[in-house]
């Protein structure tokens, strides 16, 4: 496979879509990012990376971080002898069908979020990681530095501050779940670590490389095992069904790969056994997914014939 030729063709196909949609405006630090940016990177399972466009420009990962924090919780569960079942008693694995910050289902379902990728579910995962590590956001940052091979990855203070200043809905979700006994740590601590993890800045290159363990069935970049193969399979499955907010069905129909998007405009996608991709373009559709990014991934699977179906 000539990855470089493929992604350059994909980038050319996606170019007309760049600038379409709306940049996230409810987080002021994200609103200032130009909608005209586009990058794509592919990392094969041996760690070789290919890129086009703005593939080395850092951006705010936002909800993409939820995939990595879930993986750490499942991995940390081994050392605590609780296994990965502990987290699944507190969060479901079903698509939500409602916006990612909705309170409606929490009330109807006694404080148990539908899946780990909506905000309520991610707060539960962050809470669990905080219990397991004592410092959820720093543990996540260190892991991402190691897996990406980029020791300079950092939090973006301005984005974290923006999220804190406009985080009333997330605080409401956390307090509501706490009232049902579904948080182990104080709400302010959980919220703080959640905002910090969403504020991490990474490039397409960084994210494609860091997500490689999902394509390698749980093996880290250094060859050590982070997850059992069945656990990596489960994360990929939840990404496919829940990773692109309440547009996961449409995304699976168009692209056919496990993926996790973020309102910073990034999307990470996994071709198990082959490679991991990351695309970035800040213009979002009504569901919060990158317009040009989705078009690029659609074209990638069309050109390669690679999907999980």
Summary of the model, kept short:
This protein is α+β, with helices and mostly antiparallel strands.
Task: Explain what the structure shows.
The chain contains 15 helices and eight strands. The model has no long low-confidence stretch (mean pLDDT 94). By secondary structure, it is of the alpha+beta class. The radius of gyration is 18 Å and the shape is globular. The strands form two sheets. It has a five-stranded antiparallel sheet with strand order 2-1-8-7-6. Strands 3-5-4 form a three-stranded antiparallel sheet.
Question: How widely separated are the two ends?
Answer: 19 Å
SSE order, one letter for each helix or strand: HHEEEHHHHHEHHHEHHHHEEEH
| Gross morphology | globular
Class per helix and strand makeup: alpha+beta
- Describe the strand arrangement of the main beta sheet, using strand numbers: 2-1-8-7-6
Question: What is the overall pLDDT average?
Answer: 94
Task: Provide a count of the helices.
Answer: 15
Provide the gyration radius in Å.
18 Å
């Amino acid at each position: 496979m000539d990855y470089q030729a493929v992604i350059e063709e994909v980038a050319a196909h996606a170019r007309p879509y760049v600038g379409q949609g709306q940049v996230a405006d409810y987080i002021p630090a994200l609103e200032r990012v130009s909608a005209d940016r586009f990058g794509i990177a592919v990392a094969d399972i041996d760690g070789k990376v290919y890129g086009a466009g703005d593939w080395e420009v850092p951006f705010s990962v936002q909800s993409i971080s939820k995939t990595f924090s879930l993986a750490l919780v499942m991995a940390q569960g081994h050392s605590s002898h609780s296994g990965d079942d502990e987290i699944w008693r507190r969060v479901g694995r079903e698509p939500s069908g409602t916006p990612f910050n909705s309170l409606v289902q929490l009330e109807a379902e006694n404080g148990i979020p539908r899946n780990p990728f909506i905000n309520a579910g991610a707060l539960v995962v962050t809470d669990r990681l905080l219990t397991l590590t004592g410092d959820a956001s720093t543990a996540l940052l260190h892991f991402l530095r190691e897996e990406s091979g980029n020791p300079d990855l950092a939090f973006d203070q301005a984005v974290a501050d923006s999220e804190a200043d406009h985080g009333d809905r997330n605080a409401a979700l956390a307090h509501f779940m706490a009232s049902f006994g579904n948080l182990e740590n104080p709400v302010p601590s959980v919220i703080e670590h959640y905002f910090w993890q969403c504020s991490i800045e990474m490039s397409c290159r960084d994210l494609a490389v860091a997500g490689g363990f999902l394509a390698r069935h749980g093996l880290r970049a250094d060859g050590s095992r982070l997850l059992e193969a069945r656990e990596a399979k489960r994360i990929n499955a939840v990404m496919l069904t829940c990773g692109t907010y309440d547009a996961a069905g449409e995304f699976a129909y168009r692209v056919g790969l496990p993926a996790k998007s973020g309102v910073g405009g990034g999307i990470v996608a996994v071709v198990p056994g082959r490679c991991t991709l990351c695309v970035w373009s800040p213009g979002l559709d009504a569901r919060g997914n990158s317009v040009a990014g989705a078009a690029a991934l659609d074209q990638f699977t069309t050109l390669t014939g690679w999907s999980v179906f």
